Amino acid sequence: MSKVLLDIKNLHAEIEDEGKAILKGLNLTVKAGEIHAVMGPNGAGKSTLASVVAGKDGYEVTDGSVNMDGIDLLDLDPDERAKEGLFLAFQYPIEIPGVSNINFLRTAINEIRDYRKDEPMSAKEFMALVREKSKLVELDSKLASRSVNEGFSGGEKKRNEIFQMAMLDPKVAFLDETDSGLDIDALRVVAAGVNKLKSENNAVIIITHYQRLLDYIIPDFVHVLADGKIVKTGDKSLALELEEKGYDWLTEEKTV
Amino acid sequence: MTLVLSEKMDAFLSELDVPSNDIQSNVIERVKGMDFPTTRDEYWKYTRVGKISNTKFTNTSTTSADIDVQSHLISDNYIIIENGKIRSDISQINNDFEVNYTSATAVNHLVNLNDNDVFTALNAGLFDQAITIKIAANQTIEKPLQLVFLSTGERVMANNRILIDSGKSSAAALVVSTISQGANSCFNNTITEVNVAENAHLTIHKIQNESASNLSISTEQVKQAKNSTFKINTFTLTGLLIRNNINIAVAGENCETYMNGAIVSSGKQHVDNHTYVDHQVPNCYSNENYKYVMDDHSNGVFNGRVIVQKDAQVINAYQNNGNILLSDNASINSKPELEIYADDVKCSHGSTTGQLDESALFYLQTRGISLANAKKLLVSAFIGEVIRSTENEAVTQLIERLLQTEYGWDFS
Fold first, then answer.
1. SS3 of chain B: helix, strand, coil, percent, to 5
2. Which chain A residues are within 8 Å of B371, Cβ to Cβ?
3. How far apart are the C-alpha atoms of A163 and A194, rounded to whole Å?
4. What is the pLDDT of residues A115-154, one digit of tens each?
5. In this model, does residue B110 exceed pLDDT 60?
6. Cα distance between residue B222 and residue B229, in whole Å
7. ipTM value of the model?
């Protein structure tokens, strides 16, 4: 049996300034080699889940735990979580003028290596890796050397997220609505990239509104997140059912 | 006429040696009736000069034997000036530029210069030898001439006087480095007069990397003739109190004027840039971009004055001042001053002050970059724009290297 990579137990989180509870006792267990999809209506807390796990400021965890491969993530700074092998593909990737994709990725990789007490990557090795991984998502190598996401189209930004994921080779990757704003061709490219990165040793959690992406990345489990909790878990057929019936029957079923 | 003598000025002058010639002793006699500016003077509103006016400086220091400025040199054509005294013995100049050292008695217009400014008058009365630099007409010089103003010792006042004359249709660049070696509370008071002749191109790169206790006031008086291009880039890294005055009279048509500044401050540094472009004639372009990154308790001042005179039509004048405050205790006073008396002009100014973008910091952190390094990346990106605008690879590299040494910032 493969080992548990991510174990979220009874997670409660609220927006810091407002004291508004968003996650209300969420449980999620992800094993190595698995793909999970988290679906749910607007405002259910899907993106908050990704933000809290990644350590974004502005949220307060009031109860519960998040454990990744034996490490308590909630005690760590966002960069330390990444160094332990967590990755978050942003729903809205940030534009950073003046910082080149290449420069910041080399900084990241070498900082991660230093954290793991590995030797820094040579410039040659690094450039070879850039070439290899940019092909994976058909990212123009010119984009790789431009400022982070600056002037990128919506599709290029999402491909750049998966390119970064490929470069950093995480244990656990959250893809936060990576399909939003993608046309069908870009969606195929991004999905193919994720499928190639998938292995027996890592896990992917896809946060999405639509079943569409799951035609290309086949999940082992589909979870429905509603009102801050996982209210139903099934296999990929659940996604099709949701597409057909919406979310109301689940939230109603719960209240009955 | 009787002079009202200022006790403060008397005390200030008490340990300073005045060169023994009539011209300069007359200037100093006049200075005795002057006072230091206070924050009630509009021109000095945000900068207190008490650290200067309350210190008894000397100017009789002996020269140091073990000077090492190698790490600051980017040209094999350089002049080293230690505490206001030209060190010909360790300078190295070729024939690209025509360089002469002249005493006050040989510079005849000296006492006419901006009489009312006390620091200008002090400089006039106390400087040892002026450095006159001529660029011959029609000459294009590839390698810059570098002036290295070095402070050594304690409480030493250096009065530096530079005259630059770039000939018709010439093109050249100067690098002016102000640095320290074991200096404590030294004061550099520098006046540079620049004439940019018809169709000439002149660039000055100022690199200010003094000791943390040093004080500096420098003024460039620039005059541009028609069809000329003048650029001045100011990079301030260290120094306790830095005041830069750049005054440019654009007196000929079809001129281009560029002023860039990158200021990085920490501790209790105070950095004040006053720029002044006087568009006297039509059809000219000026562009100004100053960026400050301020940490700890440091203070910044930016005052960008642009005047477009009545008949100076078709002027394009742009000004930008961007500031990042890294600490809650850092502050900046930014003041654009546009006075436009002509009607067919395009002038713009922008001033922004803020902190580093939180969402960008988080994004970088989620890639495994520590908060400290993420800040460095964003700061380097912010100020890198100005540093790369030098159009001189050696200057850019030197500044990047100095920023790496002083602040640990990586621009690679």
1. 20, 45, 35
2. 77, 79
3. 9
4. 999 999 999 999 999 999 999 888 887 887 789 999 999 9
5. no
6. 11
7. 0.95
Of A96, A108, A109, the CB nearest to B381: A96
To the nearest whole Å, the CA of A109 is away from the closest chain B CA by 8
Determine contact, residues A229/A255, Cβ cutoff 8 Å. Answer: no
Select from B369, B382, B412 the Cβ nearest to the Cβ of A108: B369
- Across the interface, do A77 and B359 touch by the CB < 8 Å criterion? no
Q: What global pTM score does this model have?
A: 0.87
Asked whether residue B412 carries a pLDDT value surpassing 60, the answer given is: no
Please report the domains of chain A, with CATH numbers, ordered by start residue: 4-255 (3.40.50.300)
| CA pair distance A29, A42, nearest whole angstrom | 23
For A177, residues 6+ apart whose C-beta sits below 8 A from its C-beta are A46, A47, A91, A207, A208, A209
> Mind listing the pLDDT tens digit for each residue in A15-71?
998 889 999 999 999 999 999 999 998 889 999 999 999 999 999 999 999 999 999
Q: What is the pLDDT of residues B193-217, one digit of tens each?
A: 999 999 999 999 999 999 999 999 9
Spatial distance between the Cα atoms of B402 and B151, rounded to a whole number of angstroms = 17
Q: Evaluate whether A176 touches A88 at the Cβ level (below 8 Å).
A: yes
Of A54, A99, A164, the CB nearest to B377: A99
φ and ψ of A155, to 5 deg:
-70, -40
Nearest CA in chain A to B375: A99
Neighboring chain B residues of A115 at a CB cutoff of 8 Å? 368
User: Cβ separation of B412 and A103 shorter than 8 Å?
Assistant: yes
B 366-395 residues inside an 8 A Cβ radius of A: 366-371, 373-374, 377-378, 380-382, 384-385
| Chain A residues bordering chain B (beta-carbon distance below 8 Å) | 54-57, 77-79, 81-83, 86-88, 90, 93-94, 96-99, 103-105, 107-109, 111-112, 115, 147-148, 164, 168
Report the distance separating Cα B42 and Cα A126, nearest Å: 55
* B368-385 as b/e: b if 16+ CB within 10 A: bbbeebbbbbbbbbbbbe
Token couple for A42: 């607007």
DSSP code of B58? B
Segment B328-350, tens digit of pLDDT: 999 999 999 999 999 999 999 99
How would DSSP label each residue in B334-365?
Answer: EEEEEEE--SSEEEEEEEEEE---HHHHHHHH
Q: Is the pLDDT of residue B5 over 80?
A: no
State how far the alpha carbon of B39 is from the alpha carbons of A91, B44, B46, B49, in Å: 51, 5, 6, 9
Residue that the structure tokens 């450039």 belong to: A127
Q: Which residue in the block uniquely carries the two structure tokens 């001189």?
A: B392
Q: Which single residue is written with the structure tokens 């502050």?
A: B331
**Residue B287, phi then psi, degrees to nearest 5:** -140, 130
CB pairs under 8 A between A and B: 82
* Shortest distance, CA A156 to any CA of chain B (angstroms): 17
Nearest to A53 by CA among A20, A7, A105: A7
pLDDT of residue A256: 46
Q: Which of A94, A107, A115 sits opposite B360 (nearest CB)?
A: A94
